[in-house]
Amino acid sequence: MTVVTPLADPSRRNRNRPNWEEPPTAAGQTGKGVVLAIVVAVVLIPLWMVVLTSLSTQTAVNKAGGMVLVPDGLTLAAYKQIFTNQLVMHSLLVSLGITIVGTVISMVVTILCAYGLSRHGSYGHRLILMVLVITMFFSGGLIPTFLVVSALGGYDSYWSMILPTAVSVFNILVVRAFFSATSQELIDAAAIDGAGHWRTLWSVVLPTSRAVTAVVALFYAVGYWNTFFNALLFLPDNQKWPLQMVIYTYTLQGNAMPGSGQNTTGQYFGTQEITPLAIQMAVVTLTLVPILLVYPFVQRHFTKGVLLGAIKG
Amino acid sequence: MTALHDAPPASLRAPEEKPVKKNRFRRDRSLLLMVVPAVVLLLVFNYAPMFGTATAFQRYSIYAGFWHSPWTGLETFRQLFADPLFWSALGNTLMLSLVQLVLFFPVPIALAMLLHSIMSNKIRTIVQSVVYLPHFFSWVLAVTIFQQMLGGAGALNQFLRQNGIGTWDVMTDPDTFALLVTSQVIWKEAGWGIIVFLAALAAIDTQLYEAAAADGAGRWRRMWHITLPGIRGVIVLMLVLRLGNVLTVGFEQMLIQRGAVGRDAAEVLDTYAYFYGVVNANFSLGAAATLFKGVLSLLFLLAANKIAHLLGEDGLYRR
């Protein structure tokens, strides 16, 4: 395209800005900047306060009157406390276990199913696709699901945290859209070299689909890590609880945590250098950290292609 | 303009001669084998409960189980419709949904348009990574964070107390509960919601803007005549999906906060089904409430889709 009219001094122009567009006004730029800064602050400041409070001394928390915004006396005492708390540590292991085992199962099932449905004109794939998609629009709902899982012995057992939610049809469709787009020549070449479907999936399709598998694995992992309602429903015993249940019971509802040195009225006995609030925030931080650790590596794949493929169906 | 229909179904794309059925089955048996685990899981945990909804027409007893519980016809539904708490839950659900539709739905669209207008890739990427983040937190975490910010002992009231303005425990105030819930949904999901709209915005042909600019259209006129019509299809699609879910308002979100704010404000259809179905072990009543919700949701979805068609959009599926 040729230059229409030079509307502004080209030297001040952002190189992304097409040259037919008006130069930005100062007021407009400032307004946008302020709005975006507020949006970012609204997300990040609460997280900052949670993490900071978990690291603050009793004096700092008391001086702030609760949540701490400005660092003022830091200590790891809250973490020492929760890392010796049997209930918190066990729930951390349970959450990690559910997340790892669950994600592996989900990914195997999802990738196999997505590949099985991704070859054009294969036997019965339309019918199977229909069987899958119907579950996106109809569901038995809470009570019948509860009764089915209970009848299969899922009550008070860990598999009820994983198997009922192991398949996400949405995720299958996302992966399938990617697999379908894998170059047919590549697959034909593999077939000529004598590769069967299993071999093709493993050595041709999967290596070219790392972005989509990373994103879908993150979706599954986050889902398992955040497991709350299924635990409330199926795990009556706090010895089996995942982390989210511990936060719900002891931070949100404010019950006294066993073995935390806190009595039932929520007050501490003995001399403590940390407050219950710091301990609660340390547990909250514990659930936050894995997400914050994994997120940056996967986040760059959230491009339009990965997610919009799913809407196509 | 919707992304729904760009690719024809695979079966339409494969005009090559079809081998005999039996041979195709043998040829594709390893593909079929791969599908088995997913299908089995769906049959057990999705299809079996679908048929288990029949419990709504029984007087279900745990001891008798599904096969031996007595069938009672529409008795459960009579009981359900006679329960004022059910109607209150339905009312709350619709009210919360409506507030969210008005206050939440436009936010991701506006945010996406704002972000799209930012030229610097760096700023755009940073803002995107920040606003997507809360989507990955559990509701337990999100509500805990809100409690620490707005609750009786939270940051807001610390500030109010220190300045002697009195206190306002937002977390337990039933009068403003709808606004609280909506602001939580905005905090957690508005950022994630922009992805779809950003993709739609990126798909608009830039030559349209250039031509309009050459014809003298300023940035606001270009927004009104090019940008908004360009993403209209996606907006309508998201609206149709939202209307189909009008009876679903964040189940875990409500469940967690029902205790603090009280049943009158926070009971929705899903929590009603949970508390009367599972907690009070009136399984048939809970199943009936869920079935009622499911049927009504489907009607809403079809109606919304019909309206989309009347507006000349594709909606969920093509006419």
UniProtKB/TrEMBL annotation, chain A:
Membrane topology, from the record: Multi-pass membrane protein
Full protein name: Carbohydrate ABC transporter permease
UniProt entry keywords in alphabetical sequence: Cell membrane, Membrane, Transmembrane, Transmembrane helix, Transport
Subcellular location as annotated: Cell membrane
Keyword Cell membrane among UniProt keywords: yes
Limits of the ABC transmembrane type-1 domain: 92-298
InterPro entries from the UniProt entry: MetI-like, MetI-like_sf
PANTHER family given in the database record: ABC TRANSPORTER PERMEASE PROTEIN MG189-RELATED-RELATED, POLYGALACTURONAN_RHAMNOGALACTURONAN TRANSPORT SYSTEM PERMEASE PROTEIN YTCP
Region annotation (Disordered) ranges: 1-28
Family per similarity comment: Belongs to the binding-protein-dependent transport system permease family.
Membrane as UniProt keyword: yes
Transmembrane regions: 33-52, 88-115, 127-152, 158-179, 200-225, 277-298
Highest classification ranks of the organism: Bacteria, Bacillati, Actinomycetota, Actinomycetes, Micromonosporales
Organism domain of life: Bacteria
